[in-house]
Specification:
This protein has 286 residues and is of the alpha+beta class. The strands form three sheets. The chain has a three-stranded antiparallel β-sheet with strand order 3-2-5. The chain has a three-stranded antiparallel β-sheet with strand order 6-7-8. It has a two-stranded antiparallel sheet with strand order 1-4. The radius of gyration is 41 Å and the shape is rod-shaped. It comes from Macrostomum lignano. Keywords: Membrane, Transmembrane, Transmembrane helix.
């Protein structure tokens, strides 16, 4: 049943009679005065023909529908259009409804989150009118009502979230707002297609605190990485010392390499190589 209702809402607006029994109009019961006025209007149109065509012929665009009220009642057949149709002047009143998707910005809302943090959040809402007759008869101003409801829904949804959830779960918050708005605007003939959270502005003090916390976390990670590097370097030095200790010639080659490196630099220091045999004698003696 729910899927059938969603398919009906997503279908293009029909120009036939209203499907809701509560919205049906008895357009034939105008009464004696109504019939007399209608006949007089037809007679006036005939007498002033063809000049009366300027007032009788109306045209609506492809993206519009016209809801016609005759003596306060909606004409049988629902909304008219697109294209050309004829009305009776002095008896018919026309309300044009735009069926295109409308976009509006929700003003920044001051919201107190679940963890007692005040943030300013704004959003964008996309909606369209899927039933022109209901949008005209069930609500005074569908656009204004949808805008006010979007601002209220934004505050209600964000009030149940923590600051971390607002910053990291924007997509889920947008989906919750879209479902809530869609259910609330269904009796108005409005279909909310999409809701997007644009920006979350934090207080200055909270921004500084979060920046300090992030800086401290980066410094801690840097110290951990430096300590791990020192640990790996000490292990490599220990392995190199074990290799040199196993081969006396390796120590002599390393000694000569160090002398070569020092002598390559431009300095005034004079280096006198010391035989390794003397050092080995002192090392064995110790």
């Amino acid at each position: 049943m729910h899927s059938a209702a969603m398919q009906q809402r997503d279908a293009p607006p029909a120009t036939g009679p209203l499907s809701d029994p509560g919205q049906q109009r008895d357009t034939k019961g105008m009464g004696f005065c109504g019939v007399v006025l209608l006949l007089m209007s037809y007679a006036l149109i005939i007498l002033t023909f063809p000049f009366s065509l300027c007032l009788c012929i109306k045209v609506v665009a492809e993206y519009e529908r016209a809801v016609i009220f005759r003596l306060g009642r909606i004409l049988e057949g629902g909304a008219k259009g697109p294209g050309l149709f004829i009305i009776v002047p002095c008896m018919d009143m026309i309300r044009k409804v735009d069926l295109r998707t409308v976009t509006f910005d929700v003003p920044p809302q001051e919201v107190l989150t679940k963890d007692s943090v005040t943030v300013a959040v704004d959003a964008v809402v996309y909606y369209r009118i899927y039933n022109p007759v209901i949008a005209v008869t069930n609500v005074e101003d569908a656009d204004r009502s949808t805008r006010l409801l979007a601002a209220t829904t934004l505050r209600n949804v964000l009030g149940t979230k923590n600051l971390s959830e607002i910053l990291s779960e924007r997509e889920s918050i947008s989906n919750m707002m879209q479902e809530s708005l869609d259910d609330a605007t269904d009796p108005w003939g409005v279909k909310v297609e999409r809701v997007e959270v644009k920006d979350v502005r934090l207080p200055v003090q909270l921004q500084r605190a979060m920046a300090a916390e992030a800086e401290a976390a980066r410094e801690a990670r840097a110290k951990v990485i430096a300590a791990e590097g020192e640990q790996k370097a000490s292990r490599a030095l220990k392995e190199a010392a074990d290799v040199i200790n196993e081969s006396p010639f390796a120590l002599q080659l390393r000694y000569l390499q160090t002398l070569n490196t020092i002598s390559a630099e431009k300095n005034s220091t004079i280096i006198f190589p010391l035989p390794l045999e003397i050092l080995a004698h002192f090392m064995h003696k110790s």
